[in-house]
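User: I'm curious whether this sequence folds into something compact or stays loose and floppy. Could you predict its structure so I can see for myself?
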Amino acid sequence: MKKFLLAGLALAAWNAGLAQTAGGAARTTASKSGSASQSTAPKSVSAAQGMVVRWSGNCKRCSLEDRSWDPVNGTCYFPIDMEKKPGTYTISRRTTGGKLESAKLTVSEQPCKYEDFDNFPKKEYVNVSAPNQARHQREMAVVSPLLNFKKDERPAVFDLPVGKPADPLPKGEGNFGSCRSFNGQPRDRHTGMDYPVTAGKSVMSVGNGRVIVAANHFFSGNTVFIDHGNGLISEYMHLKDLAVKDNQTVTKGQKIGTVGSTGRTTGPHLHLGVRWHGARVNPGYLLMDPSDMPAVQ
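Assistant: Here's the prediction. I'll summarize afterward.
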């Protein structure tokens, strides 16, 4: 009887050990499954219209929809146009090791700030004459092709953050992308940021590059556009005078003109605009440390 009792106890202990081993195996499998699930979780990033997001680490090529471009110092940057339709988009990157990775970019709407300039003093910019309308069309026929996305973009000759266009640079007026009207008449949205810099102060290039436009235009007054490579173009408008000319090579911090109020303005200020891969973005994002940009996680 004692032998049967000992045998029964041994069998029970063996079964308990087997159950414990099976439970441990199940937990280990679940743990591995959970780790695999976490490692394959889709990457994503969220940002508003007019912002720039980044995807850092050994990038060789970056793409958004049907467009692709080179990274800047190994990081993919994805500029979001100020009027890009809100929704979810797929962004991709090819690593230096040849791996193709994708992530979800969720774009939210950036509410439009409304500005109405009542009793605008320069009446010729409110009720624009036929000759001035024709002049504006001629100017845009030259400028627009230079600002659009190009598949053969030159290599980047700039670093982020870019340099300040004035020293000191006061806080911007927060009017990037604002919806404007003059004497109650709706006009195009504001594509840059205005900075309250004093008239006559030097305006400087935010980076190395080549001047692609240096001219007097009807609406923007004395205007300079600089190509910094990698599809990045900086815009400076309403200048008092110009210190550069077309096709001139400039360096970061070089004077390109002085602050003025030429064109459609209410007074002296610095207008800074940015186009990156054809997208109109808030220039403030290029003036900040890239680590502060929304990043793919």
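Summary: The mean pLDDT is 89. DSSP finds three helices and 19 strands in the chain.
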